């Protein structure tokens, strides 16, 4: 089945769509109004990319006197062009410099949108979705129409990338309702159609496709028009109407060739191959599929290559060439696995970002509830004092005093008992009671019999967090780390703080392989989290050592030694990993 969306809805590629026209000579004139010159350059960058490049060269060759604001705008345009040329590392550094130091909220928001494209293009999905969440929170504060429009289209693309169809449609429609001067409905309509397609909600007769085509043709956005029509051809193929798909390819051939836009040229070859294969034109199908493959890099993994190899496999199988069919099938499977791995990575990154945002929201709600309880308690105390004045009597005073004294004694006993068991900072078991509860649990597990895993977790370079951000920030990191770990634990697992930045977990009814998987999930969650402490964004990682009862028995001291030894090896071999000792003193890394 065709998968058009992976190529045609990537926003960094869409930015390049209007930038493939042939270079026309432009006679440079002296720059008299720098602000107007920069406005024009920003406007034409996607409509007439050669002219945009020449304008950048002109302002660099004959630099006028620039104000601070104009210098930052020029840096933003240079960063955009650097990313367009494929130098993502340099572009990222330039964009982050603008975000952190320009002092211009509008320019910082634009740069953030470009950084979002940069991260998603390079498959740094966790960072991209974390940034998308922050940009979503900032939408209400952005008043500049063009900046808001750009962010909304970027967010629509990111939600589509994560498979969140309804959110992608919502952002596309918000962009359509907030079109700034100089823009058209082409991009919002295309984004909405792309989201519907990715969510398998489009048919060849759906009005959203024709609406996008009409809007993009009216705006002279040729490549957006071609992208929408290629999407329609893909739907024809899904509906088993190859003749219509082939006719549409013939109609688009000249326009796509004139645009020199690589993704659409490759898509056209492979869709033509699929249409010919469905029609039984095997020779033409094979020729088009090989042409599409020939446009890719040797190590490239994409859904287009997967579809091309699938066509070649079917063609060779139909011809009775079994060795050739098997060879193409193996390449098809490799491409399919790579594509599915990328889809899974996007979905997981989105979920991690959402969990982090949810955790922050829950913490805020918890603090708000605590404040409400305190206010209610204050009101109740005031009312109790007013009422008690009416019924004061010696006996009542004596009885109340006794009751209060007994209550306070009991409460103090319970409090001291609780404090003696729990760590004061994190609220989990302290070292002594963790050891006691773990020993009791192991004795129970030994009688069943069952398996258990002992995990030691140590935060990497934690002293640097305290030294750089202060001990309050370090305490926040410890508390947030405990919260992350608790998301993966069950009610019957034992969790405690062993001291400093080291934690211990005893996983009950848990064989060794499952323990390794859970330990690695906790490590990845810690590494992926960004801790916000008093305005400071802190990241950290953890080294993990594991020992299991199926390898070392149920003696806690032995398990502690082995887990500590594995933790030491994890630290020594580079940190941020899970290690487990084997009974023969071998070492296993998760």
Write structural notes for this entry.
The protein is of the alpha+beta class. The chain contains 25 helices and 8 strands. Strands 2-3-1-6-7-8 form a 6-stranded mixed sheet. The longest helix has 67 residues, at 322-388. Mean pLDDT is 82; it is low at 1-27.
First CA to last CA: what distance?
36 Å
What's the overall average pLDDT, rounded? Answer: 82
Question: What is the makeup of the main sheet?
Answer: 6 strands, mixed
The spatial strand order of the largest sheet comes to 2-3-1-6-7-8
- Radius of gyration over alpha carbons? 31 Å
- Summed up, the helix count is 25
Please provide a brief summary of the model.
The chain is an alpha+beta fold. Helix content is 69%, strand content 7%. A hairpin with a 5-residue loop joins strand 7 and strand 8 (587-589).
Characteristic key phrases:
590 residues, globular, six-stranded mixed sheet
Strand-helix topology:
Layout: H1 5-8, H2 11-17, H3 34-44, H4 49-61, H5 68-84, H6 88-101, H7 105-121, H8 125-138, H9 145-161, H10 165-176, H11 186-198, H12 207-218, H13 222-238, H14 242-259, H15 262-279, H16 282-294, H17 303-319, H18 322-388, H19 394-421, H20 431-447, E1 452-459, H21 462-469, H22 471-486, E2 494-499, E3 502-508, H23 512-528, E4 531-533, E5 536-538, E6 542-548, H24 549-552, H25 556-572, E7 578-581, E8 587-589
Parallel strand pairs: 6-7
Antiparallel strand pairs: 1-3, 1-6, 2-3, 4-5, 7-8
Helix pairs in contact: 3-4, 3-5, 5-6, 5-7, 6-7, 7-8, 7-9, 8-18, 9-10, 9-11, 10-11, 11-12, 11-13, 12-13, 13-14, 13-15, 14-15, 15-16, 15-17, 16-17, 17-18, 21-22
């Amino acid at each position: 089945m065709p998968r058009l969306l992976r190529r045609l809805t990537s926003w960094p590629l869409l930015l390049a769509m209007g930038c493939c026209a042939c270079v026309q000579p432009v006679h440079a004139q002296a720059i008299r109004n720098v602000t107007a010159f920069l406005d024009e350059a920003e406007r034409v960058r996607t409509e007439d990319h050669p002219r945009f490049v020449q304008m950048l060269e002109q302002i660099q060759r004959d630099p006028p006197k620039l104000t601070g604001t104009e210098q930052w705008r020029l840096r933003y345009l240079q960063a955009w062009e650097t990313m367009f040329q494929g130098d993502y590392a340099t572009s990222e550094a330039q964009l982050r410099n603008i975000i952190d130091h320009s002092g211009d909220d509008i320019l910082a928001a634009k740069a953030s949108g470009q950084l979002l494209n940069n991260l998603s293009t390079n498959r740094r999905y966790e960072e991209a979705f974390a940034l998308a969440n922050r940009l979503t929170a900032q939408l209400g504060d952005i008043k500049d129409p063009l900046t808001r429009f750009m962010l909304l289209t970027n967010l629509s693309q990111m939600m589509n990338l994560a498979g969140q169809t309804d959110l992608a449609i919502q952002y596309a429609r918000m962009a359509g309702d907030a079109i700034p001067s100089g823009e058209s409905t082409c991009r919002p309509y295309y984004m909405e159609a792309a989201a519907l397609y990715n969510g398998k909600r489009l048919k060849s007769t759906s009005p959203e496709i024709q609406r996008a085509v009409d809007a993009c043709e009216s705006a002279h956005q040729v490549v957006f028009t071609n992208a929408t029509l290629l999407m329609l051809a893909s739907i024809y193929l899904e509906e088993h109407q190859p003749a219509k798909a082939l006719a549409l390819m013939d109609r688009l051939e000249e326009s796509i060739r004139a645009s020199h836009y690589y993704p659409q040229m490759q898509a056209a070859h492979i869709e033509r191959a699929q249409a010919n294969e469905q029609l039984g034109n095997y020779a033409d199908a094979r020729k088009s599929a090989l042409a599409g493959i020939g446009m890719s890099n040797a190590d490239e993994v994409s859904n287009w290559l997967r579809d091309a190899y699938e066509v070649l496999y079917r063609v060779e199988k139909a011809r009775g060439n079994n060795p050739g069919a098997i060879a193409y099938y193996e390449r098809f499977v490799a491409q399919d696995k790579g594509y599915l791995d990328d889809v899974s990575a996007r979905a997981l990154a989105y979920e991690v970002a959402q969990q982090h945002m949810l955790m922050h929201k829950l913490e805020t709600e918890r603090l708000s509830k605590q404040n409400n309880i305190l206010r209610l308690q204050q009101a109740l105390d005031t009312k109790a004092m007013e009422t008690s004045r009416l019924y004061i009597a010696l006996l009542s005073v004596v009885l109340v005093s006794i009751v209060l004294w007994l209550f306070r004694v009991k409460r103090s006993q319970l409090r001291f008992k609780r404090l003696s068991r729990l760590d004061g900072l994190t609220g989990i078991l302290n070292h002594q009671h963790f050891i006691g509860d773990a020993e009791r649990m192991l004795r129970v597990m030994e009688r069943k019999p069952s398996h258990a895993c002992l995990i030691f977790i140590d935060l990497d370079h934690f002293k640097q967090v305290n030294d750089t951000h202060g001990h309050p920030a370090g305490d926040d990191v410890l508390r947030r780390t405990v919260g992350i770990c608790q998301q993966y634990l069950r009610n019957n697992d034992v969790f405690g703080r062993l001291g400093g930045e080291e934690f211990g977990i005893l996983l009950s009814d848990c064989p060794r392989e499952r323990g390794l998987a859970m330990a690695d999930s906790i490590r990845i969650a810690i590494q992926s989290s960004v801790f916000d402490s008093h305005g400071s964004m802190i990241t950290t990682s953890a080294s993990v050592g594991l020992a299991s009862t199926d390898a070392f028995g149920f003696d806690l001291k032995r398990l502690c030694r082995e887990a500590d030894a594995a933790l030491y090896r994890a630290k020594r071999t580079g940190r941020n990993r899970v290690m487990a000792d084997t009974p023969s003193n071998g070492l296993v890394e998760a």
